[in-house]
Amino acid sequence: MNRESVLDLVNKLYLEDLVIGKNIPKEVTIWATGVMMENFDAAESEGVKDKVVGKTTHTREVVAAGEDIMNGSPDEKWDFSLGLLICFLHDIGRFLQAHKNTFSDQVSGVDHASLGCQMIKEAGFSNEIIEEAIFHHSRIEYLGGNAYAKLIRDADKLAILRVIERLTGMAERLGYSKGKPCKIIVDSFVDKIKVETKYLVTKADWILFFGTWFWDLNFEVTGKMVCNEKIPERIVDLLTREGMGGQDLKQVRAGMLEFKKNYGIQKN
User: Fold this and answer.
1) Handedness of CA 149, 143, 105, 216 (dihedral sign)
2) CA-CA 20 to 30 A from 57: which of 10, 165, 166, 205?
3) Sequence-distant contacts of 163-167: CB under 8 A, at least 24 apart
4) Which of 128, 125, 162, 163 lies closest to 148 in space, CA to CA?
5) What is the pLDDT of residue 176?
6) Model-level pTM?
């Protein structure tokens, strides 16, 4: 995308969006979209530009997911604007990390959540709730009691799961090979164990890795949306297309059925 197209995208997603305009302070929106555009302009390769554009889109998708989760769980008595603000700012550190041409914290040497907290604090938009939520949003687990940290963890996962087919294509561009999932990924899904991205080798690993997130959702409404949007079936379909079969696929199907039953959905 050229600069004019990206600027149009930013305007449409953020500066002209009624939900953003109603709930996010204008100075925050201007600052964050400025970060997006500055890092697009500073990109030295098409790969980095693509990453900045991808995170620009992903950020709005996470805001939408957070909105859906809060609307579906009114008993939590959310501060709606605070929840959307955290969703909006959760990946702000990714825009600087993109210049490493990877979104792996381990490979880049950049802890994007910590960097994001630092950026938000320096811009004057942080508080204890926001900082805790953003710092923990991508950790392998969160054991604290901050409802907004739980919200952003669910919203981030839900937004990604909703576009899993698109991300499968991205896995190809990142160089993940064809082939069945590695045993550690299959076992992690079957045993409901969290797994780190460093173990991903094949495109099928990438797909099933997202399935391991099913066992790390905080709100019932998130799980129900995952089921209602047929994400378990979509993951099985993608794995089948990658050539997965036999006992491994049977185990994954069984795990998907168990997940759906947990949310009161009995049919396959």
Assistant:
1) negative
2) 205
3) 163/61, 164/207, 164/210, 164/231, 164/234, 164/235, 164/238, 165/234, 165/238, 167/206, 167/210
4) 128
5) 81
6) 0.95
